[in-house]
Amino acid sequence: MAKPFSSTGAVTAVGHRGDPYRLRENTLPSIRSALARGADAVEIDVRVTRDGVPVLLHDATLERLWGHDRRLERLDHRELLELTRGQVPTLREALLAAGAHRVMVDLPGATDTSVRRIVGVVRECGAGERAYYCAGAGAMLQVRAADPSAEIALTWTTLAPPRATLLEAVKPRWLNYRFGLVSRELTDRAHRDGLLVSVWTPDTKRSMRRLIARGVDSITTNRIDALHSLLTNSPTSDVS
Fold first, then answer.
1. Which of 89, 106, 119, 109 is nearest to 26 (CA)?
2. What are the angstrom distances between the C-alpha of 13 and each of 16, 126, 150?
3. CA 221 to chain centroid
4. Is the pTM of this model over 0.90?
5. In the prediction, which pLDDT does 6 show?
């Protein structure tokens, strides 16, 4: 089984949408902050504007983050920039901001067209070795069709393991679980099957420590500073 890409040689630390407790999620300052605070990788959410530009946004609309009840899929990139004062970055800009670091590309609202465009931009940026993709089975099958060599973290939301036929079709490197589902038995089973286990999104050191003890390979968190501290200091540090 291939080793995860952790700077500590243990668990990979992934900043969830950058560093969202300090800076607005899915923005360039948030990405840079997560990396400065010890992230091995950043997770970003990518959707596509009406005119086909992949940009960073988790929600289908601008309402929660930007105060506009407008659907992204109905906006051209120029309109998006005007509504958000230019603060929603493109995927291309995010890959550049991440430098040599890994980028976990989540694909909410994926369609065949949007996935092909997103995978195409990753290729155009020469980031195929740095980027890997996460989402449910449908989106990951679309990624596999668009790029047979893509690294995939299959998001899985039940305790029942994925069927062998699905694993054969998707060919994931990772299984990506909500952290509350993960037990030592689950990680041991995945490792026996040659898969790495990533989890999202524990935000206390207590939860992080428990997951590390259960053998996870990667943790995606909103508190990248807490995770980095836990991984680089004594395991007996205070729980917060």
1. 89
2. 10, 23, 21
3. 10
4. yes
5. 77
Q: What are the tokens at 22?
A: 């300090």
Find, among 175, 181, 234, the residue nearest to 209 by Cα: 234
Cβ 79 vs Cβ 52: under 8 Å:
no
Predicted local distance difference test score (pLDDT) of residue 12? 98
First vs last C-alpha separation in the chain: 33
The pLDDT value given to residue 236: 41
- How far apart are the C-alpha atoms of 127 and 163, rounded to whole Å? 30
106, 90, 107: which is closest to 52 by C-alpha? Answer: 90
d(CA 15, CA 149) in angstroms, rounded, equals: 24
Over residues 162-192, the pLDDT tens digits come to 999 999 999 999 999 999 999 999 999 999 9
Collect all residues with Cβ–Cβ distance below 8 Å to 98 and sequence separation of at least 6.
31, 35, 42, 130
Written as six digits, the tokens of 215 are 């053998």
Give the three-class secondary structure for 40: coil
Q: What angle do CA 212, 24, 120 make, to 5 degrees?
A: 80
- DSSP for 86-134 reads T-S-BHHHHHHHHTTSEEEEE-TT--HHHHHHHHHHHHHTT-TTTEEEE
The pLDDT confidence band at residue 8, using thresholds 50, 70 and 90, is low
Model confidence at 4, pLDDT cuts 50, 70, 90, reads low
Torsions phi, psi for 208 (to 5 deg): -60, -45
What average pLDDT does this structure show over 4-12? 77
